[in-house]
Write a sequence for this structure.
């Protein structure tokens, strides 16, 4: 699927996303934000922000001294997030993870919440994440559902049926090929978290 088609798919659902698709269990969202072990004052890149479902939970963890650059390829989704008026140091960037208009080594962590399956060139996306994260910084790919559940749901929707989370071996191989180390993948019954670190 082209990025134009992907943008159209998400833009067409921006107005109903929070009611029909987004995670509504605030306990699960808060718990996932805690599991990311983000540092107070950290600078984050939130890739695939969408309507901003996960933003307030990360902001709670990093506090008032933290900063988030929220990026999405679908401008209408990003506008929905911006219009929610979240309190905190947030900037919104309409861009594609495959080619970010950002300098290198500027983020303490790159977070992909509920977005990784939709990256059309996952290897390139991981290379870009590696480029923009600082040395010893982390990449965090997370979902508040299991890999199997997400892949099953996507498989029922024609336009995103190929947008899946790779199995553990393939994911580790892709992360390693992009340069990441200390790779750990936790795929539980109701969540998924892959974390990796850029070497010092």
């Amino acid at each position: 699927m082209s990025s134009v088609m992907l943008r159209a798919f998400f833009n067409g659902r921006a107005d109903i996303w929070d009611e029909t698709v987004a995670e509504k269990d605030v306990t699960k969202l808060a718990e996932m934000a805690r599991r990311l072990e983000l540092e107070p004052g950290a600078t984050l890149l939130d890739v695939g922000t969408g309507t901003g479902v996960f933003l307030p939970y990360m902001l709670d963890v990093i506090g008032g001294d933290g900063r988030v650059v929220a990026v999405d390829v679908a401008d209408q989704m990003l506008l929905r997030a911006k219009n929610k008026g979240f309190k905190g140091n947030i900037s919104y960037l309409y861009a594609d993870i495959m080619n970010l208009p950002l300098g290198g080594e500027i983020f303490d962590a790159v977070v992909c919440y509920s977005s990784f399956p939709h990256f059309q060139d996952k290897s390139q996306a991981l290379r870009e994440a590696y480029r923009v994260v600082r040395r010893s910084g982390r990449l965090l790919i997370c979902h508040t559902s299991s890999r199997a559940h997400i892949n099953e749901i996507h498989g029922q929707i024609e336009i995103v049926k190929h947008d899946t989370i790779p199995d553990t071996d393939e994911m580790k191989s892709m992360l390693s090929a992009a340069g990441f180390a200390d790779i750990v993948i936790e795929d539980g019954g109701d969540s998924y978290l892959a974390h990796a670190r850029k070497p010092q």
In short: The mean pLDDT is 93. The chain has eight helices and seven strands. Residues 110 and 139 are 5 Å apart (CA to CA).
